[in-house]
Amino acid sequence: MQTSPTNQTVRGTHDLIFSSARRYRHIVDTSFAVAARYGYGEIKTPIFEFTPVFSRTLGDASDIVSKEMYSFTDKGGDNLSLRPEGTAGVVRAYIEQGLKNQWPLKLFYEGPMFRYERPQKGRYRQFYQIGAELIGVEKPDADVETISLAHTLLNELGVGSKCYLEINSIGDKESRDAYRKVLVEYYSKHLERLSEDSKKRLSLNPLRILDSKEKGDIEVNRDAPKLLDHLNAVSREKFEYIQKRLNDLKIPFKINQHLVRGLDYYCHLVFEFRTSELGSQDAVLSGGRYDGLSEIMGGPATPAVGWAAGIERLSLLTAADPVAQRAVCLIPIGDKAESYCLTLAHSLRQDGFLVDMGYSGNLSNRMKKAASHNCYAALIVGDNELSTGEFGLKILDSGEQIKLREADLKTKLRELILK
Ligand code: ATP
Ligand code: MG
Q1: 392 in ligand 1 pocket by Cβ < 6 Å?
Q2: Domain membership flag for residue 213
Q3: Residue 117 Cβ contacting ligand 1 at under 6 Å
Q4: Is the CB of 89 under 6 A from ligand 1?
């Protein structure tokens, strides 16, 4: 066994610190604020679950279960997996807590997910998602509301113009079964042109061949029978209804007949907000309807629809760093000033001010550090200031020096913050 290093992250994982942590926090806070407007409350499920929570729901043929799960046996012999996605855990919680009497249930989450993938820009082994699940509404209005939430959120994060919405319907089971037959017949005639992966998919999950990124598969897919031609009346009606309502809301979309999503539990609507700015990591926010999932997991029949978005991909699309709150820096010179500043900082912080403390070094270095910490002002306190009761407040952006008395300090700082 190789010895593992003690001073570096595992491939495909990363630390979030300063700017990247600020972006993360901004995306999460904005998402929860927008989701609250749509009536969502927060859910936090464990980071690991029994492996079947994922393997039985996502499907053995899915990329996640067949290649990407972090599964392990713990010391008690239980077969556990780090969660690769959020929906299965949310539905497990819904069943376990008996939440059916709370329909419609609107749950929003954020947190880390784990997949053993080939790391690259926008694709990691530990990554973070936000996600929304609307449980207990069968009407396609719920699908529209879910897309409306995603659309509002992307706009509010300032990335809406970089994303486009694609939708498709994979119909109900009857429609899918009928379509699968025709599709398998078609692919069987073109077997030699399919990639090795797709040949395997043909018996396991032929619909997945439709969204293959392999060149040969793409050519075969061009003339493949169309799913939408095989939807039964109920499925077609639902899909048409959704399109009409999206038009009412002026949310632009395109139908992509090759969008099938990789997981077994979807039915009817599937959708994706994509971008052309992140290379092959083009999926930003993906979702769909999953009416059968609760039953697969041993729960009551439950209509549901939801989506998840990758926080790193959202962060890569957000141009500006969210503005950090700015502090005033207290710079004490001498022992007396140090204890004075400690008390002053305590009092300012209790009144809601952000206060940084310039601890040591010469004055000019401490001023430089205050500027590099993005403080908006520095208050220099030495013996002289303590005996006269008059302080110098230096505005770091402009270099302006303001003389003020201690009694006026809070009023002045408040004015500066509000400016
Ligand atoms: P992709 O086609 O890029 O592999 P996916 O279909 O596997 O995406 P989902 O399982 O639908 O993705 O996850 C929802 C969202 O999570 C994606 O739209 C994407 O923004 C993000 N995401 C998925 N996998 C990763 C990853 N390995 N690293 C970072 N973000 C990811
Ligand atoms: Mg994937």
Answers
A1: no
A2: no
A3: yes
A4: no
The residue among 229, 211, 244, 57 whose CA lies nearest residue 143 is: 244
Q: Are residues 313 and 347 in the same domain?
A: no
Q: What is the pLDDT along the chain (419 residues), one digit of tens a residue?
A: 668 899 999 999 999 998 899 999 999 999 999 999 999 999 999 999 999 999 999 988 788 998 999 999 999 999 999 999 999 999 999 999 999 999 999 999 999 999 999 999 999 999 999 999 999 999 999 999 999 999 999 999 999 999 999 999 999 999 999 999 999 999 999 999 999 989 988 988 899 899 888 899 999 999 999 999 999 999 999 999 999 999 999 999 999 999 988 777 899 999 999 999 999 899 999 999 999 999 999 999 999 999 999 999 999 999 777 777 789 999 999 999 999 999 999 999 999 999 999 988 898 999 999 999 999 999 999 999 999 999 999 999 999 999 999 889 889 888 877 66
Kindly state whether residue 221 falls inside one of the protein's structural domains: no
Nearest CA residue ID for atom 25, ligand 1: 123
Range of the domain at 85: 19-172+232-317
Count of domains observed in the chain: 2
Q: Pull the structure tokens for residue 403.
A: 């003389």
In a domain, 30, yes or no: yes
CA of 130 to the centre of ligand 2 (A): 16
Tracing tokens 């809070």 back to the chain, one arrives at 410
Which ligand has the minimum distance to the alpha carbon of residue 308? Answer: 1
Identity of the amino acid at 152: T
Q: For residue 31, what are the contacts with CB-CB under 8 A and spacing of at least 6?
A: 108, 110, 130, 153, 157
How far apart are the C-alpha atoms of 61 and 216, rounded to whole Å?
21
337, 298: one domain: no
What CA–CA distance (Å, rounded) separates 380 from 358?
9
